[in-house]
Specification:
The complex is a heterodimer of chains A (about 350) and B (about 230).
Chain A: E1 2-10, E2 15-23, E3 27-31, H1 38-46, E4 55-58, E5 61-65, E6 68-69, E7 77-80, H2 92-101, H3 112-119, H4 134-147, E8 152-156, H5 164-180, E9 185-189, H6 192-198, E10 201-206, E11 209-215, H7 216-220, E12 234-245, E13 250-255, E14 258-263, E15 272-278, E16 282-285, E17 296-307, E18 313-320, E19 323-330, H8 331-337, E20 344-349, E21 353-354
Parallel strand pairs in A: 3-9, 3-10, 7-8, 8-9
Antiparallel strand pairs in A: 1-2, 1-4, 4-5, 5-6, 10-11, 12-13, 12-15, 13-14, 15-21, 16-20, 17-18, 17-20, 18-19
Chain B: H1 5-38, H2 44-56, H3 59-70, H4 75-82, H5 92-117, H6 120-128, H7 133-144, H8 146-161, H9 165-170, H10 181-190, H11 194-225
Classes of the chains: A alpha+beta (about 350), B mainly alpha (about 230).
């Protein structure tokens, strides 16, 4: 089951040329700076943009090939726009019914009550879009898209028009969506934090080309990837809650290659959590250092060294039993310690950022 | 102040004329306005200029050409003459056609502007929610353009109430058939019957003012509450 997409568009100052073969499950992030072509790819998949000569198939069903071009309204998609794009003349409930009413009963897989509960919008149903806050509008827009029972959900920076507080309000709903509904999502974003938190698979776009494509872990830990990630380099690790230490109010998170302690988490033992380790929070040592306040230490093997965002720094990629790590250290330290691929070292992790 | 039976008839004909020509205009101009709002064709400006001509041409010029067109030897009038209906000059249907040409820009422009102001993003959203192009037009474009339609309807109606030049050229001045209020006023003044002229004139002023008041009140209310309520 996969999404195969080949689009070429020449707009003079901008050329899009992508050839993608993506899994059709989980959240696939189309990630890149503004102007990198990620929204154009999404619009081509939706059929809102027509790239002549392109090809698109979703789970074996061809939506575009040669002269064949399935019009937007015949594609089983849900599209969430940056600004929500609710119909201003209809209240929230009528907005949500719009797609539902046009979905043949036999194809309806998403229930009204389920969606109202999922996005917590029961009290907003008879309000008009101009009586809703930005975050509320976006929740209604998500509900509206889901109620047309899409087989593929397309999201174009659904959080970018919201301030930080509103983003924090919506993110949990997106995570629940990911966990509770089995609909593949193409998610356009330029925010590394969002991608790290939500995505399973990442396509990195730069100037109309896909420069990297792979699982979140592999893509974020690659050192050869350009700028988009470098200034905020780091890895995302998927872990299981291993134990709680009630005396010191700590929680141990286990993952292949080791474990780290974080401040006490509410999740039960066995729950899955994602956390992010920024390269700037990782330092390296030859031996297990005693007498340091840093308690999270992992043995790891250096696999690669690359230039960082400044000439004074380098990025060092390590593997701890299959779990990749990136450390951002000074070039002087690299030379003094003679760090090179194959070297066994201890990675000291100052802080981790929990993503859920 | 005195209103004779002929004046009442003239008012009734005026009202009927305004209502019928406005209704037909709204139906016919909707596709035209939609096309003008959405086409990228270069010749669009020529069409727009033609639609706006009645705004600046003297009504007598419009009326003169219409008379030639609708009369027994005109292309349109001649056709109706041959199929046995009779030519259209000096008839009520002729008046309706004349009024429609005269009020055309008052309907096309507000509707076209309303269509142009509707964001394409909202229509794209409707498309992703499985709405066909016609469905999108009926359920999104039309309701969002309703202010434009309302303005168009009231302006066209009020404009037709005050029509004089086109009608006197195309319809003449036949009491009970083609004599409208504005022409009846002219006749009264010619006959120095100022009392009757006053009565009719006052009725037209009050009517036109209340119609325009409605338009502005509605536009104002919409602005405050948004297009939602």
């Amino acid at each position: 089951m996969s999404i195969v997409a080949r689009f070429r568009l020449d707009r003079g100052d901008f050329v899009l040329d992508v050839d993608l073969d993506l899994p059709s499950h989980g959240v696939i992030a189309l990630f890149g700076r503004s102007g990198s072509g990620k929204t154009t790819v999404l619009r081509c998949v939706a059929g809102l943009e027509h790239a002549p000569g392109g090809y698109l198939s979703v789970d074996g069903e061809v939506w575009q090939d040669g002269d064949r071009f399935l019009p937007v309204h015949k594609r089983p998609i849900g599209y969430v726009f940056q600004e929500g794009n609710l119909f201003p003349h209809l209240n929230a409930a009528a907005n949500m019914r719009y797609g539902l009413d046009r979905t043949p009963p036999a194809e309806r897989r998403v229930g009204w009550d389920e969606v109202v509960e999922l996005f917590g919008i029961g009290h907003l149903l008879d309000r008009h879009p101009d009586q809703l806050s930005g975050g509320e509008r976006q929740r209604v827009a998500l509900a509206r898209a889901l109620l047309s029972s899409p087989r593929l959900l397309l999201m174009d920076e659904p959080l970018s028009a919201l301030d930080h507080a509103r983003k924090q309000e919506i993110l949990p709903y997106l995570e629940r969506l990911h966990d509770e509904l089995d609909i593949p999502v193409l998610y356009v974003s330029h925010a590394p934090g969002e991608v790290a938190r939500l995505a399973d698979h990442v396509v990195l776009l730069e100037e109309g080309k896909a420069v990297a494509c792979g699982t979140l872990r592999d893509t974020l830990s690659r050192l050869d990837l350009p700028t988009a990630l470098a200034e905020d380099a780091g890895v995302v690790i998927e872990a299981t809650v291993g134990a709680h230490d009630e005396r010191y109010h700590l929680t141990r998170l286990d993952f292949p290659g080791g474990s780290v302690y974080v401040a006490r988490r509410p999740e039960a033992v066995g729950s899955r959590l994602r956390f992010r380790v920024h390269a700037r929070d990782v330092s390296l040592a030859f031996c297990r250092i005693e007498g340091t306040s840093i308690t999270n230490l992992l043995p790891a093997v250096v696999t690669e060294v690359a230039d960082a965002d400044t000439p004074a720094h380098v990025l060092v990629r390590l593997e701890a039993d299959g779990t990749p790590l990136i450390a951002r250290i000074t070039r002087r330290a690299l030379d003094q310690l003679q760090i090179e691929p194959g070297l066994r070292m201890w990675a000291q992790i100052k802080t981790v950022a929990l993503l859920a | 102040m005195h209103l004779g039976p002929q004046d009442v008839t003239a008012l009734w004909i005026t009202f009927k004329l305004a209502l019928i020509s406005t209704s037909i205009l709204l139906v016919l101009c909707t596709p035209l306005a939609w096309w003008l709002a959405n086409t990228r064709w270069r010749g669009r400006t020529v069409v727009e200029a033609m639609v706006s001509l009645p705004l600046v041409l003297p009504p007598t010029v419009l009326g003169f050409y219409l008379l030639l067109l609708l009369g027994p030897r005109g292309v349109v009038g001649g056709f109706f003459e041959r199929i046995g209906v009779g030519h259209l000059a000096f008839s009520f249907p002729g008046l309706v056609i004349g009024s429609m040409v005269y009020s055309l820009p008052f309907v096309v422009q507000p509707v076209q502007n309303a269509f142009a102001a509707t964001s394409t993003r909202v229509l794209e959203a409707a498309a992703t929610l499985r709405a066909t192009p016609l469905d999108r037009f009926l359920t999104v474009s039309l309701p969002l353009a309703r202010r434009g339609f309302l303005t168009a309807a009231v302006l066209s109606f009020a404009h037709t109430l005050g029509e004089f030049g086109v009608i006197i050229m195309v319809g003449g001045n036949i009491p009970g058939r083609t004599q409208v209020a504005s022409i009846a006023i002219f006749n009264h003044v010619e006959a120095l019957d100022f009392a009757s002229a006053h009565a009719l004139a006052l009725i037209l002023v009050v009517l036109a003012f209340s119609l325009l008041l409605t338009v502005y009140a509605i536009n104002r209310r919409f602005k405050v509450v948004g297009v939602g309520s």
